[in-house]
Amino acid sequence: MALWKERTKYLGAWTNANSVHAKRFWRVLDGFTEEQKSAVVRFGWGRSRLPDRDSKWSFLIGPPHSNNDDYHLPLAHTCFFQIEVPTYSSEKIMREKLITAITMGTDIVMK
What we know:
The structure is a single chain. By secondary structure, this protein is of the alpha/beta class. Strands 1-2-4-3 form a four-stranded mixed sheet. Helix 3 crosses helix 4. The chain has a single domain, classed as Hect, E3 ligase catalytic domain (Hect, E3 ligase catalytic fold, 2-Layer Sandwich). It contains four helices and four strands.
């Protein structure tokens, strides 16, 4: 978790690690099981483990450009290891939406 936090870049309203939403995100992840944390990585990056410590990578997180409310799920951009997380009104809602996204939104359909 320390490496993940260290390599995180915040976007938009999330401005930095001290923003309300960033703190909420890390509290939610701290409460996840190791399997759930791995699922968040898989959701955002397409793999179940973080990249190698020695490689150059960063995790991007911030709010979406629209649909910034309690009714929408997070959106992932696996090419960039980026997750767009709406600015949910509570930690409980963020937890529920992240769990839904990581359990139901990890299939990538190729046509």
